[in-house]
Amino acid sequence: MPVLVRPSLDTDLPAITAIYAHAVTHGTASFELSAPDETEMTRRRAALLDGGFPYIVAESDGIVLGYAYAGPYRARPAYRSTVEDSIYIAPTAQRQGIGRRLLEALIRESEMRDFRLMVAVIGDEESHGSIGLHRGLGFEPVGIFKGVGYKNGRWLSTVLMQRSLGPGISEPPTRPLP
Predict the structure, then answer these.
(1) Is pLDDT at 25 greater than 90 in this prediction?
(2) How many CA atoms are closer than 13 Å to the CA of 67, on its beta-carbon side?
(3) How many helices (H) and strands (E) does the chain have?
(4) Distance between CA atoms of 72 and 81, rounded to whole angstroms?
(5) 173: pLDDT strictly greater than 90
(6) In the chain, pLDDT over 70 holds for what percent of residues?
(7) Helical (H) or strand (E) element with 138
């Protein structure tokens, strides 16, 4: 089954909302405790697109299998060249290489927008698939915040990883101040 990775569309939002709701309800990739509705997911996507950030989906036969986006790492202007990635895959499409395809495309899209560093904040030290995915695409571990969240009856840590984009920090940023 061929998989197409493309920019997200408004019509993808029901599927995006359902994929994220499953991740919130059943997983530790997100530290949200209640899944946002489609109106909120629409607002969040619009804010990222308005900010010049990439927001993409993977689909096959018209079915959205997963989505990914890069967003601001922090709000302060000095962080303008650093993005944080987010990747969510439908439960039926996991462990099929969809996450890798999305992350590869997200890296390319972020480099085309002249972002210089991508940060992964991975929920739960036990998220070996996500950690391995990021490591396989050149992310390096930089630390672990132990027990920073409590969800599903247990304390969760976050694994921090990072990867240079384009020229990285060898040159000053060209992205304008927000």
Answers:
(1) yes
(2) 24
(3) 4, 7
(4) 8
(5) no
(6) 100
(7) none
Output the six-digit token pair for 95.
Answer: 């462990």
Q: How far apart are CA 17 and CA 97, in angstroms?
A: 21
DSSP string, 108-143: HHHHHTT--EEEEEEE-TT-HHHHHHHHHTT-EEEE
Tokens 């999305």 sit at which residue? 102
| Reported pTM | 0.95
Distance CA 15, CA 63 (A): 8
Residues in the chain: 178
For residue 95, pLDDT beyond 80: yes
Give bridge partners of residue 53 from the DSSP assignment.
none
Token couple for 162: 């990072």
DSSP 74: -
**The 117-123 sheet, strands edge to edge:** 4-7, 55-60, 63-72, 82-89, 117-123, 154-164, 140-151
